[in-house]
Amino acid sequence: MARVKRGVSDVSTAQKVRLRSKPRVAGSHLLELYLLTKERDRLEQHKEVVDKKNRQVDEGIENVEEEMEKIAGNKPLYELTREPKKSRKKGGKDKRDRVKTNKITLDY
Question: Which domain holds residue 60?
């Protein structure tokens, strides 16, 4: 059986378990209904936000795949790779490896 990775949001809290500091009394059904209604509303709102994020991610993936198809077309991957660099001259550095430096003369 595969283990599911759990995060901080999966930790049981007093609200999730519905623990109360006072024992339940005969008239507390309305309060329980109110609290459960508020929790349901919060979860529905959270679901809407998550669904919107999922749609944005799906659209982003589709856009990237379309761009990849435009660039690659039907060419195989080995045709899209860059050519290997040419070998350098023996014993010297290429001009592109040089870094410009400022020279300062110090007199002692």
Answer: 27-71
